[in-house]
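INPUT
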Amino acid sequence: MACLQKSFTVRTESHQQVVDISAQVAAVVAEAGITTGLCLVFVPHATAAITVNENADPNIGVDFLRALKKMVIEHDDWLHDRVDNNAAAHIKAALIGPSETLPISNGRLALGTWQDIFVCEFDGPRTRREVSVTVWG
Amino acid sequence: MACLQKSFTVRTESHQQVVDISAQVAAVVAEAGITTGLCLVFVPHATAAITVNENADPNIGVDFLRALKKMVIEHDDWLHDRVDNNAAAHIKAALIGPSETLPISNGRLALGTWQDIFVCEFDGPRTRREVSVTVWG
Amino acid sequence: MACLQKSFTVRTESHQQVVDISAQVAAVVAEAGITTGLCLVFVPHATAAITVNENADPNIGVDFLRALKKMVIEHDDWLHDRVDNNAAAHIKAALIGPSETLPISNGRLALGTWQDIFVCEFDGPRTRREVSVTVWG
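OUTPUT
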């Protein structure tokens, strides 16, 4: 088994935003040089998340964030808003989750044609969102 | 470490549906012949997802799809509907996620008594939904 | 590669509750004695789930459970309520998912400063919720 773990950072520009990190993750997979295995993509943050969906139409990310805003209303008497005023961001991050695990086949991420990897920013803008990629196989 | 990666396809019959794939995933785990390890179940699609829940009462799947329809309203002025008219399916797929990772113990998936593995179809019917299973340990 | 799989149980006190299991998971990682790798945290239950978020303010868990109650209304004519009267718990468990996979770096879980690991109880109280931890690297 080979195992490679690398991190990179992402800058976000808006309060809520999805950022396509597919190319950065693919570069770590290529560097690992393994044929068959898995890839864990993880954010060490409690107000950001990782998900996978289509970026060929970037409006899917816009729709996704709008849907989450309807599910989790901002400042809806959340108790944590008294401390940090960002409770909705924490709730969304817990709902989507901080990681995705993806298969590697033939030395590449075995994503579908319409799948891209997103960091979901729920409490930006932030200068440094860290993404940890662990590849093994 | 042994690692086995196999795919199979699922046909869906309805616009929205959960399909129990527990037996097909268990067959890949049995073929791998490993004692302790992990199993990644992944769909390479942006309008389908993987989740785990009870199928002893198949109405749980029906309730789950109905709950998602209430959370993500179809054709609610989503921007992606102008392109493909299936934005709600993409949003649900991003919310549930394309994979689950499950433990293997004593040569078998260590699922609970009331846990089955589902492909969630959000934009069917489709003749071929692919499921990728990676087992290692 | 080293692989260690261990289980522990959690008692829940309320109908819906998040329980911080970060210390128990960290103890399994420490026992495994690996430097770089991954950790799968899994509940073999269909009315409980695993998520990751901040516990420095325990009200985040309270807010998270309240948000889920708004998304998935209890006894909203769910079909499974006719069998077991706990359909909302199943729906929430399917939505959040039974597992999280986390990176290990420098012999420790590479969680962020504001990340803790939670078991989400949606149908308690229960005397025994099992948590399975698989570490490899």
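end of record. The mean pLDDT of chain B is 97.
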